[in-house]
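User: Fold both of these, please.

Assistant: Here is the first one.
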Amino acid sequence: MDETVFLAHIAEDGREQTVDEHERGTAELCAKFAAQFGAEEHAKLEAMRHDDGKNTDGKNTQGFQRRLRGGPAVDHSTAGAFECFRANAVHEAICIVGHHGGLPDVGNAKMDTPEDGTFFGRMKKAMSGGIEEPLGMDRPITALPRPNFYGDRFYESVWIKMLYSCLVDADYLDTENFMSGGKAAREEYDDMATLLAYFEKHIAPWANPQGELNKKRWEILSACLAAGEGPRGIYTLSAPTGSGKTTASLAFALKHAVKHSMQRIMYVIPYTSIIDQNAKVFREILHDKNVLEHHRGIVFDKEDKNFDSADYKSALAAENWDAPVVVTTAVQFFESFYANRSSKCRKLHNVTNSVIIFDEAQMMPSENLLPCVAAISTLCAHFNSTAVLCTATQPVVDDYIVKYAPNIAIKEICPEVRRTYEQFKRVTFEQAGELDDVALAARLGGHEQVLCIVNTRKAAQAVFNKLPKEGRFHLSTLMYPEHRQKTIDIIRQRLTDGEVCRVVSTSLIEAGVDIDFPTVYREMAGLDSILQAAGRCNREGKRSRKESMVTVFTGEHRAPRMLKMNISAANSAMRGEEDIDSPEVVRKYFNTYRAYLGDGTDKVRVVEAFEKDKVYGMMPFKTVAEKFRIIDQNTRTVYIPLGKGVESIARLRSGEKSRKLFREAGRYGVTIYENQFETLYYSGCIEMIDDENAVLINTGIYDEKMGLKIEDSSNINFII
């Protein structure tokens, strides 16, 4: 090899890519990505220096060129970062230093030592001669003017992370393209104008709606289409349960994306239980290839030999969210936003210049409310995105939005909120006070068709066991999805046929389950949960309001600790009110709840960590990534080998893995908490498939009515 030629990659077929070729290819892509938020030149700079550390021949040290031919691993990230650092291109240097190992904590310029893993520690190590100097470098660095962050350290941290995301995605893609010989099988998607045309064709038959309810839904849909022509910013869609918010919000998103030449639509959904059905709706309207469903329950493995072409393309798209419509969970979205690893961060830049719909926005976790809203606001204020907070019970977060997006007005898509809610009033509320299990079961037994929603699985089981056996049903997430769905199908049919049907369920039925009862009982919870439950009563408006009763009661079982503030705020807001679903009462509830939370909306002080160096040190990317979790408690999946799940689960046990297989087996999986998983493991009831998943081998503990029976050693009643 000529000493002046330094290689970045060697393909399996022997082809060679030089460092210069790789950096220029990466720079082209990186600049294209960063153009979405006006940072092209910064992106070019970081990309053109990110692999300078590969210009080491290993004559006197273990250089990268030796590594290419089987030598030991070497640090090739610090050299280019140090070159940028010396030229005062600090932001670019931070991105380069972490482009493989993850964004580090920036640290303390005065206190950090060369032994520290912080950015400043790495720079001090380079200063002291702790890295090999790259050879043949004759490209001087000219630092670029920094964006005006207006003293907003949080915005600055997000800008760095976006620049980092552009770099790592461009790096991956250029490498992928070279190694595949330009044959990487990424999907070719339809553009937004075409997707809008698909949508307009889909809704065309609805233009002359029949029936009052469908007329009202068309009115909301039309309002969303009109609002889509409005400016970028932050919107709210305050529409009651049953008003068609999912389709209406898609109407806004498509119209808005076409109007402003935006690159994609993101749907962020709080429940994995409803993500499948929403994604299915979008696929039916927009065609399968244009919709990426990405959450923990979908396993993507590019190396799987059982993958078909569509699977492989989806696996590639999941890495960087480059599909025009991405449906994901709040966990995936926000934990990716605060992540520091390259594999998680590479997709973030694709959130810029996008329409982001937050479905059931009131479900944003209270202990992480501030970091979630800060992320949304910053994306809209500085990265050309538009957010829609879509909910039947609009949370009160205006003050947080104003803090992080002070120049953006919050616009309501359906401004006549009071009239809209009045139009969709389909039930009468009753506050029944305290009811023990016996009294509750007696009242439920007096109805031919009734739904009762309680706060814990323990309460659900207790009440269910006291009901008359004829026509009684139980629902919880301890039943695998296929079992739950079959039960729901039976319930729907019995409701249609006028047969006896008494259902006791945990909160899983409150959102995303299209089911219609004449009477609903809801154990005291947050007002948002109560109103979601009310959406299962007289859903299609076929009965009069007086005939459709929603009874709110306090049960005998102790409320879970995590619900106590919600219940207290709901009691305060509902006291003396007949119309507990009015916008005024709902707003009072959220204001009261926020007052109770006080400073408890940022549990691990994420935002403060970036705003103030005193929390975890300067720009603590790594530390925050380790601490920030939407869901604190880890969960695992237990597959239940019953019914049609026997075959697919047997294939999993044999070592076979594919997206299709995991999707099939997932219909027979139960997600449980870590302590519950350990209980089953140490009792010999399950067999491990991999580090996260197991198969139930003692099927005798799966009940055809109740689902998986677990003796919880911690004696905690979890809400699922």
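And the second sequence with its predicted structure:
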Amino acid sequence: MEHSLIKTNFVGKDGFRWWIGQIAPDSVQAPQTKGVAKTGGRYSKAGPPPFSNRYKVRIMGYHPYNTVELSDEDLPWATVISPPGYGTGSAGLFKTVRFQQGDTVIGFFMDGDNAQIPMILGAFGNTKSRASEGAPLPFKTFTGYTSTLKEPSEGTLHKSNSTGARDPESPKNISASDAKKVADASGNDNKAFINSAVGKVIHLGSGESKMTEAVNKMKTGVEGFTQELDNLKASLDVNSAFAQDKINGLIQDKASALAGVGSGIVGGMTNGLYEKMGPMLNSGLVGLYDDVYQKTFLATMSPALANAAGIAAQESMLSPIGDLEGLLPCITNKITGNLTDSLAAILGSVANNVFAYADCVGDQVTGAIMNDVIGQISEGMAGALGGIGKLMKYMGDFSVDGLLRNGVDALLGMAGLGDCGVTPSPHTGAAKYRVGFGPIVQDAPDLSAIIKDANTAKAISDAAALAGVPLDGVQDILGGFSLLSGGISNAASALGGGIGDGIRSCSGALPTLCEPPKINIFGGGGRDAEAIPFYGNIVGDVRKTGSIIGIKMTNPGNGYLYPPFVEIVDNCKQGYGAVARATVKDGKVNEIYMVSEGENYPIEEGEPPIISDVTIINPGSGYEDGDTVTDDFDNEYDVKVSSGSIIKVTPINSKDITDIPILTVNSTTGSGALLKANLDVRPEFQGEVKQVIDCPET
């Protein structure tokens, strides 16, 4: 007794007693894992937070094999020893232990033979097996599922069969904005499936010129910003101060990220200006020399003196020219440093005025950045230009602003950013990828149109300032683009004369009409392939939505070297989950098959499709005459077998198809056949069969 109570050694030296035990039923784990007990045996999250790293454990060989002698409620608490990577809870850093009722664990007694302080080291692997009685019993196998942690029903996340003939349904991980749309339409709360990554747009390398690449990256960044903003607004009360703080934080984060892309544009414009100024400054020096030479010669009649005077005049300009050229790097650094603030102002206006991204939104943002850059360059060089005043009259219609706004040359003629005289090849691959949707085509930006809009927007701002029409600070600096503020409407009405008509129209509003999805086929080295979708799983009466269960080629195109990308374009961006792939044969797109049908796409009225024919992907082996093919729509098929392989499957009847059909080969001997059902519209009625003439073979 004395030996057991009075230890003379440190913990562990008096003996190591390990054990195997079973996590007791979930009903007795509270309050450690569930919270504080309330009336009626229920538990609440109110009160002190539970200490979830302890579990009641029944230890084999130490505790009774029944609950009469020792109830589950009276079992001791065993503390879980957390692995190094899990943290301890200190400073709020930890991972929750995820043991479930019925798990078999291994541990030791920290107090040795006293056996009053059990510690859990780990657990053995488990399955979802359960006792036949269905009730948790000591040291019997029972399920880890409880009343609060329910077992998912068969096929909750996807449909499948034993052969895997049907691919998974549309993914249940959707963006917050999509979840809100579905919830508003159906009343179903999809918060459990919200994934913040879904909908994010990633820019891919396109092989275009560096300037084209920079503009595309800027536009992709703005598109991604609008999607993230949409998700944020869908998950928060936008009128709350918390939501506004989150939105402002998103604006600042995205502005900082896009500043790196914008700095490339800034550097290119200043380098382009440097290259354009060089020849013009040389012209000025030549003009100055000629003018001084002529005047000196007329006064002295000495060619030597005239030459010396001309050279001296040129040399007097070298220092101001050097100051001017040396100023450009400083201006570039200054603009780059202020770029985040400018982008934040632009994105703030986008957040207030754009509800649906369109390509023109990215163009206007790019144009606004260019206006800001041009304005800062012109302002920064104004003082230095005074030093070369003697040359200006020989340099023609010279102005920094004019050089930078001289059409598309201001973009393409930049050092290190031009096309080097090489015409970009036609787009042959994906330029963007939207998570959860797939590749997206992105056409090369119309650089000429972008800078034209930028010039027009600047002219509106300047004219409005002269007319005394108030514009906000963003428009005053970045130009009178339509998406920047509602103040542009005031300017347009006050100025009149259609001054703002030169800017391409751009609406940041949600579409008033949701069009049915369109199939966009791009890449693969070919062209002209076209296709139309078939719809199924249709819900709704007036505003119907559905999934895409098949795609029919209407034009196979030509020149395809490899399978192109298939983009399913939904102008309202309300549908999600539909994924399709193409196959190519002899340079043509011979078919497009559905990987996942998706859901919630706006559809147009039309008759359901039918199975028109069957493609034999793999004929299999071992099949016999009399083997049949069935589907989940009770269609009948004529099956032809040759040498044990299925060589032809022909539909006999034609029932409406409302989902991706599964074809099953019924055979006791064959295996390996893989069939694909092709959909098409139901053919027009050909009339009744009046008489059948059978001419048997002789």
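The longest helix spans residues 241-300.
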